[in-house]
């Protein structure tokens, strides 16, 4: 086991630990070090090899960051202690091996019962059991630990759950500057002061430089820099500026009212019956009727009896349930033989057509086709783990979806069938599949299959059909994803394109979980960062007993929303992973509202401002947010 140090020297103990050398570990380390300003230690087999060892080594060697590494093939107790697990605030386990992550988590919890654990697991059911086990172990074996510090002690996440919100956001608003609070999408959007009131923004996050060639760049976020954006400006100052001045505002993509039949095809109740009585079945029934009618007419002519009786006798012969006509004339016997032979030929054909029609009926009843008048929908390619989570989110928001997957037994197929989502079981690379999904009238395309080539081919074809279409694709290789994004952006400058690896989409959610459930996310404004967090008002000298207007600190923090749920009914986590049928946050607060001890608020703050705000109250478990320097370019 070897230790290597970067940043501020070997004597500095990390505030957080990341285990793994995969793409998620590298992305998570960069996110925590640059966006949240944390001191980190990465535990990995080697900085010189492995999956992402050299990329992590570049972070370790960066002088502006405080990242060190412990190299070990087996992350045992010795490796964890060398990484500083005894006094670390959080530990992230990013390996794709669930059993290995569980083993390390149990070791870390035994050494440091107060550490916050964020575990990547594919088995969600086992993950929920593991959360309960690790938290209960602390309560039983360490009764001296404050229970208030345990509300976020263990968090189990999967790539699918964490990547889904970003993919949905890309499909709906086409923006990377997205976070979620209480199930609502919040986006940071650049607008002018003269037009921003048309969208009723929640607040102004930043005032942009008044020159187009201003350098946004190299100053620390807390320093006054005329060339960079001014964070959290007062509303009074904005009214004195010209309407053409640019600003970054926070807008809510509100939860739409559920529409009858949202997310499903508009089909008439009798339409599946049309598939049951298919054209072949109708032709077969008509042919059988013609044969029976002809034989009945001949029988009636020969016997001279009633037409009804003649038809009845022919049907008995046709279905081979009549007695042999041994004592009848020869013409009657010949007619009976002909009716029996016709029945032998027609009944198997009729049975085959009935079975085919029944299969078509079941398919039509379970997976409807896209209706003719469908428009403004999202075309979703792939119903695997990620695709199923994205489908859930889109349906929750009342957005119509058309799914395409070539595997009829895909993971999300049963869910699409239960929700009556229009679904095409076909290979998207085949001719005419995207046209059948009504791609020309869709609002966005999400290519989320497990094959990079399929996703890229589908996106390129969709771009030719509809150049202005908003697309987001899932690509496994991060460098390839960036290259594809730049190429599509340059080729189609007026269209919105997002190409991301799952690790890049999952890293912000993992970072937020490591910071604690108080942190909802972070948004970069230029090269500066605003953090959005949930703060309890009780015993906070900067909030309790003050009005919303009095709590505002220019350039430092602002109260955005109030949790109106009863204290005993509040959810701990207000991020994307906790969706609700009704909103618990009130965003339009009166400036004169006095914050009471039982209140809980959502604030937007700089990293240093949030640290100051939390230090004034009794909140537990949140590591300090240090300003390490400029954030990386987006």
TrEMBL record:
<dbReference type="GO" id="GO:0006813">
    <property type="term" value="P:potassium ion transport"/>
</dbReference>
<feature type="domain" description="RCK N-terminal">
    <location>
        <begin position="13"/>
        <end position="138"/>
    </location>
</feature>
<dbReference type="InterPro" id="IPR003148">
    <property type="entry name" value="RCK_N"/>
</dbReference>
<dbReference type="InterPro" id="IPR050721">
    <property type="entry name" value="Trk_Ktr_HKT_K-transport"/>
</dbReference>
<dbReference type="InterPro" id="IPR036291">
    <property type="entry name" value="NAD(P)-bd_dom_sf"/>
</dbReference>
<feature type="domain" description="RCK N-terminal">
    <location>
        <begin position="375"/>
        <end position="493"/>
    </location>
</feature>
<feature type="compositionally biased region" description="Pro residues">
    <location>
        <begin position="624"/>
        <end position="634"/>
    </location>
</feature>
<feature type="compositionally biased region" description="Acidic residues">
    <location>
        <begin position="212"/>
        <end position="227"/>
    </location>
</feature>
<dbReference type="Pfam" id="PF02254">
    <property type="entry name" value="TrkA_N"/>
</dbReference>
<protein>
    <submittedName>
        <fullName>Potassium transporter TrkA</fullName>
    </submittedName>
</protein>
<feature type="region of interest" description="Disordered">
    <location>
        <begin position="614"/>
        <end position="634"/>
    </location>
</feature>
<feature type="region of interest" description="Disordered">
    <location>
        <begin position="208"/>
        <end position="237"/>
    </location>
</feature>
